[in-house]
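Render this sequence as a predicted structure.
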Amino acid sequence: MLFLLPSGPALSLWARHEIVPAPAAAGGGCEIGFRVDRAALVDATHADWAAKGATIILEPIDLDFGRSFMAVDPDGHRLRVYATADDR
C-alpha cells in the first residue's frame, strides 16, 4: 500500500512476500524512495546511477503503482526511484 502524503513524502507498507524484488535485508533494513515527476526520469536516473557504478537490483519496470528501479547502498539498504502511474 502506498500513501502519498499531501506535504510530498510517501509511505509504503508492503507484505514481505509481495515486494519486487524480494528483500534480502533482515530486520533493520530499509527502503528509501525518491519520487520523480515523470516515468522518463526513472529511466534517465537509472542510466546515470548505473554509469556511476551503482549496484542495481531491479532494472526499470512498470509495476502496479508506477515505473520504478531499485539500487542498494553499500549497507544493503534499498534505494527506489519511482514515478507513480499518474506521472506517466
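Summary. DSSP finds one helix and six strands in the chain. Strands lie at 2-4, 10-12, 31-35, 55-63, 66-72, 78-84.
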